[in-house]
Amino acid sequence: MKKISSYIFLAATALILNACQPFEGEKISQSYQYSEEEIKDIHTINIDAPSTKLIVDTVDDDKISVHLNGTYSGKEEDKDGILETGIEGSTFHAAVAEQISTKWIESGLELTVQIPEKQYEQVNINVTSKELNTSPIDAKSFNLISTSGDHNIGGFKGERFTVQSTSGDIKMYNITGQGNIEMTSGSLMIEMGELKDNLSILNTSGDITILSPQDASFFIETNVNTDTSSVDDQFDLQLDDGDILSGRINTPEETSPIIKMDTNSGKVKIETY
Q1: Pairing of strands 137-146, 160-165
Q2: Closest CA to 57 of 158, 168, 184, 152
Q3: DSSP the chain
Q4: What are residue 23's DSSP bridge partners?
Q5: What are phi and psi for residue 37, nearest 5 degrees?
Q6: Cα 76 from Cα 136, distance rounded (Å)
Q7: Global pTM?
Q8: Which tens digit of pLDDT belongs to each residue from 37-47?
Q9: Which has the closest alpha carbon to 73: 51, 42, 53, 95?
């Protein structure tokens, strides 16, 4: 009786261990390309990439290329529709469908979207749970919505930009235009290519680092104490009364931009480069 019980125990243990092993899933690769003639009237780019690592490259080319590679974890009957691309009027869209995972997998999907280097009216990106990397983007408006994941924005030249993020660290380089950033948690580093427009940053829980040209002049308004913040000594800082980091950098004029920063539990740094 004991011998049979031990066999049953060993068999059950083997089943549990097998069930706990990561399933490699099914490798997929899908590619789409749109010609110069097809995209000649495109002014808006929309990209949705839930649970997918996203790379957005601006390239010296007259075509739009989209590549999806990686491990598919959803239902077999949904595989062919995992990636949708198309053109509607002046808008190009690429969207990865939400996957209802049926397996424990070791890796996921990676979407690469290559768009021509030119100025767009809008570039809109929606990502969840995975990393985002972009080349410099030239558009009148850039909008990023993120649920989680670490993101690197390689540059933005335009009139205005918005970022809404629930969690994850964000780094933005060589940024211009009027900006509004709202984050729930995670650190933010933003390098301003020039400072001519207002910038508003709300980060509930996380550090904020601003990199600015040394000769930039602007106002600062924050809710943090001077003992939880730092300003590069190369800046001429004039603080308002009190212990709050609010005042002026490099003697701004009345029309100079304002940088507003609020964080409940984080440090604020203003540095030059």
Answers
A1: parallel
A2: 152
A3: -HHHHHHHHHHHHHHHHHHHSPB--EEEEEEEEE-HHHHTT--EEEEEEETEEEEEEEESSSSEEEEEEEEE-S-GGGGGGSEEEEEETTEEEEEEPPP---S-BS--EEEEEEEESS-EEEEEEEEESS-EEE--EEEEEEEEEESS--EEE--EESSEEEEEESSS-EEEEEE-SEEEEEEEES-EEEEES---S-EEEEEEES-EEEEE-TT--EEEEESSBGGGEEE-TTS-EEE-SSSBS-EEES---TTS-EEEEEESS--EEEEE-
A4: 105
A5: -65, -40
A6: 37
A7: 0.88
A8: 999 999 999 99
A9: 51
Backbone angles phi, psi at 110, to 5 degrees: -130, 125
Residue 230, token pair as written in the block:
């730092």
Compute the average pLDDT of residues 42-62. Answer: 97
Pairing of the two strands 188-192 and 218-222? unpaired
* Amino acid making up residue 10: L
In sign, the C-alpha dihedral spanning 127, 85, 35, 68 is: positive
As a residue count, the chain comes to 273
- Placement of tokens 């100025």 in the chain: 119
